[in-house]
């Protein structure tokens, strides 16, 4: 009983962390069709922003939930103005440019923070469930990702800004004809996507040690989740994170963590073989 | 002033010759020591202090009159944490610079990249890093600890303090795999039992499910030869789950690159380790060494085991050259094979003629307030793992890295 509860928490945590690391990419790549290979580095910068802010004496939650997304969002804004906006619609070129950006960010972070692993300890203590101890921070990550998904849903579905953004991504010429500036909307959307990546990096930072190359560990999982999710932004994100999180944790618990990681990749291959358009290409069609 | 082409060529030729002359004269009577280390890139936390330690040792040798009345000249290359550069610079050191000895290499992959080049060109090679053991080659000398040297000391101590059931978490490459086998052997030799073994690729940083799995096997002790920044997360997540006060931890790697200074007090305190060196060693030799380091670099916080190992490697080589009375390859190797020893910052280090590995003191320590408190010192532990497979006295032509079967 205790064990099944602990495993349930671990599964939910695995799903939540996949949602978290993929949310920013779902906006930038899923919505805007910009292949952002610097996604992992945006997360890494979110982590460093948090650690720096905490070391300057700021409350850790303010740093994670406010400062880091803001800082990374602003960096994203600069990147969009200088590089990305010249490359909309040119997939291969954006790929090359963002790969270059990722190398540049790694270099800059190394120059500023050095190469040693840094980190802050988790702000929430562990607690006991029967015979087991659970990391209390796991619950925090689960809550953050649920709130995140609800917020994205509310903004995209409930607000005028979300409607305009979605419309512009589908037919920017039509949006322009209606009097909106696609250039500005693209800019704002990229800001939001970067801020989400920064948030993910910030929230995960207390769990892992941070080095300038940390971003590389997330990029593959984020792309797999978003691509397997398919065309619908939120339904795709949630459904693919759920499937992959479940599969990887089942194998992790029954065999080993390494097999768990492999199972995630194999599951992704199978999903894309059966559903080349992603999960939401077949199910939940037309959902957001 | 205007120069025509002929004048310009003439003058620059003269200048070049002039600038080369003193160099050539100087170079002729120096001993050349080559170094290849990652002093930038992702391994610089290991490489930079090693480089500093090497320069400190050479400065001390040169300030006291050099070796054989000759100054030692350093030819140092930064391999930038890029494996390809190791082969390139190794070639450059042997062919172009024609050095008398090479010290360097950090990861096992870098050592293997250099080792064959050195062997072919008959250039003496020192590898000054803790590694997985088993290298058997008459041309190489190893001054770091091997798994058996640490595990043989650490496991009995940790088991005595906790209990007989052990769970092993190891990095999934040759170091972790081999060390895990040694841990299993010494756990069983001491009447214990391994209840679980998990291997993790180097980039795994999420240990949530592992923490749960360990609780399922309910061990008395967790031994963790985990490697690198991503694996450091384990210690953090273990503490965050509140496990640290329930099941004690021991590690053969945590702290080699000063990792314990990154963990907070509640995350690090109490982790048991065993190394040849720690900054907290309370010996006269260590105090002198730290003072010298302080005088040279202004700050001793970066000193770690690998740096001291490098320092001791240079001292051993220098002692070999002194006893041989020459820098000629075979003479130095023979001198080093006489069971030569030096007193380093971490105590006496003796070269084992059979394996060319070091016999040295190992200290059992516990992490305390981002330092390592020495609990017990075990003097002169031999590299038993490599001795089990390698005998250079009987097979001087041996050239391979044995995988030690236990």
TrEMBL record, chain A:
InterPro entries: ABC_transp_permease, BCAA_transport_permease. It holds the Pfam family BPD_transp_2. Keywords: Amino-acid transport, Cell membrane, Membrane, Plasmid, Transmembrane, Transmembrane helix, Transport. GO terms for molecular function: transmembrane transporter activity. It is found in: Cell membrane. GO terms for cellular component: plasma membrane. It is a multi-pass membrane protein. The chain crosses the membrane at residues 12-36, 56-79, 91-114, 134-156, 185-211, 217-238, 250-275. GO terms for biological process: amino acid transport. It comes from the Bacteria. Belongs to the binding-protein-dependent transport system permease family. LivHM subfamily. This is High-affinity branched-chain amino acid transport system permease protein LivH.
From TrEMBL, chain B:
The keyword Acetylation does not apply. Gene3D superfamilies: 3.40.50.2300. It comes from the Bacteria. Residues 30-371 form the Leucine-binding protein domain. Keywords: Plasmid, Signal. The keyword Signal applies. Residues 1-27 form the signal peptide. It holds the Pfam family Peripla_BP_6. SUPFAM superfamilies: Periplasmic binding protein-like I (SSF53822). Belongs to the leucine-binding protein family. This is Aliphatic amidase expression-regulating protein. The gene is amiC.
């Amino acid at each position: 009983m205790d064990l099944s509860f602990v495993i349930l928490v671990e599964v939910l945590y695995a799903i939540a962390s996949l949602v978290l690391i993929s949310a920013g990419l779902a906006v930038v790549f899923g919505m805007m069709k910009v292949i952002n290979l610097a996604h992992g580095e945006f997360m890494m910068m979110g982590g460093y922003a948090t650690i720096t802010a905490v070391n300057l004496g700021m409350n850790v939650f303010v740093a994670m939930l406010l400062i880091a997304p803001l800082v990374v969002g602003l960096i994203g804004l600069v990147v969009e103005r200088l590089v990305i906006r010249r490359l909309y619609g040119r997939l291969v070129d954006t790929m090359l440019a963002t790969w270059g950006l990722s190398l540049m960010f790694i270099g800059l972070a190394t120059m500023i923070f050095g190469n040693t692993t840094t980190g802050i300890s988790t702000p929430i203590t562990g607690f006991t469930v029967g015979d087991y101890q659970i990391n209390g921070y796991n619950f925090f990550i689960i809550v953050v990702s649920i709130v995140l998904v609800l917020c994205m849903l509310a903004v995209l579905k409930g607000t005028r800004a979300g409607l305009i953004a979605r419309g512009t991504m589908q037919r920017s010429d039509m949006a322009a004809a209606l009097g909106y500036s696609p250039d500005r909307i693209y800019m704002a959307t990229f800001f939001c996507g970067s801020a989400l990546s920064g948030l993910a990096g910030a929230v995960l930072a207390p769990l892992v040690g941070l080095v300038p190359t940390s971003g590389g560990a997330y990029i593959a999982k984020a792309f797999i989740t978003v691509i397997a999710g398919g065309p619908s932004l939120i339904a795709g994100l949630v459904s693919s994170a759920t499937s992959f999180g479940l599969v990887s944790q089942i194998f992790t618990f029954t065999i080993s963590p390494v097999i768990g990681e492999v199972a995630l990749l194999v599951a992704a291959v199978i999903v894309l073989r059966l559903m080349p358009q992603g999960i939401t290409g077949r199910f939940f069609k037309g959902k957001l | 002033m205007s120069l025509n082409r002929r004048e310009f060529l003439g003058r620059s030729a003269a200048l070049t010759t002039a600038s080369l002359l003193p160099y050539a004269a100087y170079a002729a009577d120096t001993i050349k020591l080559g170094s290849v280390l990652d002093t930038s890139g992702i391994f610089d936390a290991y490489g930079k202090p090693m480089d500093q330690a090497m320069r400190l040792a050479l400065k001390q040798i040169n300030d006291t009159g050099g070796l054989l009345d000759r100054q030692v000249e350093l030819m140092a290359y930064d391999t930038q944490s890029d494996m390809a550069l190791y082969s390139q610079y190794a070639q450059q050191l042997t062919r172009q610079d024609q050095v008398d000895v090479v010290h360097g290499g950090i990861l096992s992959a870098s050592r293997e990249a250099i080792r064959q080049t050195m062997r072919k060109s008959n250039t003496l090679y020192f590898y000054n890093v803790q590694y997985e053991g088993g290298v058997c080659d008459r041309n190489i000398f190893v001054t770091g600890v091997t798994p058996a040297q640490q595990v043989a000391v650490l496991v009995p101590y940790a088991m005595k303090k906790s209990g007989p059931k052990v769970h092993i978490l190891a990095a999934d490459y040759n170091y972790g795999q081999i060390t895990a086998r040694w841990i299993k052997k010494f756990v069983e030799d001491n009447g214990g039992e391994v209840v679980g073994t998990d291997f993790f690729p180097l980039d795994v940083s999420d240990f949530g499910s592992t923490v749960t799995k360990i609780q399922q096997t309910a061990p008395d002790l967790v031994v963790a030869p985990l490697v690198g920044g991503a694996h450091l997360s384990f210690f953090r997540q273990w503490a965050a789950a509140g496990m640290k006060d329930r099941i004690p931890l021991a590690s053969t790697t945590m702290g080699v690159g000063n990792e314990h200074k990154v963990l907070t007090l509640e995350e690090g305190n109490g982790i048991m380790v065993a190394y040849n060196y720690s900054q907290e060693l309370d010996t006269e030799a260590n105090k002198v060494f730290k003072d010298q380091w302080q005088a040279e670099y202004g700050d001793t916080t970066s000193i770690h085991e690998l740096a001291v190992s490098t320092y001791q490697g240079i001292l051993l080589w220098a002692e070999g050259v002194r006893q041989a009375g020459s820098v000629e390859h075979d003479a130095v190797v023979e001198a080093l094979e006489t069971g030569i020893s030096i007193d380093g910052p971490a105590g006496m280090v003796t070269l084992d003629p059979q394996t060319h590995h070091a016999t040295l003191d190992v200290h059992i320590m516990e992490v305390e307030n981002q330092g390592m408190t020495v609990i017990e010192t075990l003097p002169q532990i031999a590299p038993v793992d490599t001795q089990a497979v390698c005998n250079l006295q009987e097979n001087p032509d041996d050239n391979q890295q044995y995988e030690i079967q236990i």
